[in-house]
Amino acid sequence: GSDPVASVRRRALELISERFGSTAFAGEAARRALADADSGVRAQAGPMGSGSGDALESAVRDEKAPEKDRRDALARAAAVLDRDEMVSLYEAALRSGSAALQRDAISGFSRLRHGACIPLLVTLAASTGDESTLATIADALANIAAPGAEEALLSLLEREVPAVQLLAARGLGKIGSPDAIGRLQPIASRVVGQPDVREAAANAISGIR
Fold this sequence. Notes:
Layout: H1 6-20, H2 24-33, H3 39-45, H4 53-61, H5 67-77, H6 83-94, H7 99-112, H8 118-127, H9 131-144, H10 149-157, H11 162-175, H12 181-188, H13 195-208
Helix pairs in contact: 1-2, 1-3, 2-3, 3-4, 4-5, 5-7, 6-7, 7-9, 8-9, 9-10, 9-11, 10-11, 11-13, 12-13
């Protein structure tokens, strides 16, 4: 059954966090709480103490923890862990099945301009129907601008989702080669459809030329 005093331990951690912030005492409390049998206590411990990188990483990877806590831990981890550690954590977040956590990871890869993530983004784009996730992928691809990004943007351009097409077209305007013009032209010439998407496609063609 459920632990009747787990809520007391969670509240105690909350008070420690509020009163002691990122002190060594709070970090030690977080590390001890990570061994707790209750997933809620472990999730509460993760975001505590921005200096406790191990605690934050554990919180992000805890599939039983609330999504909000995992997202908060991921954001805090970016200020503590090094690039390689964050790349590994973002990869784990992409596999989480949480669309919100996946979007956070995509944005993280974009900030790092991590070109090696593009195959992962392509795989996710092919498997998700979440429009916000697809739009985040399109924006990230344009920012990362590594080999493979243009082809991935062209694939997203084919998705019949205006917000995704808009960002894909804008991205191609930044990093696209002349080969992209043939794929952009039909969208720029549409009589019907979203005017902003047509305009973005036309502007992309002008930018490439």
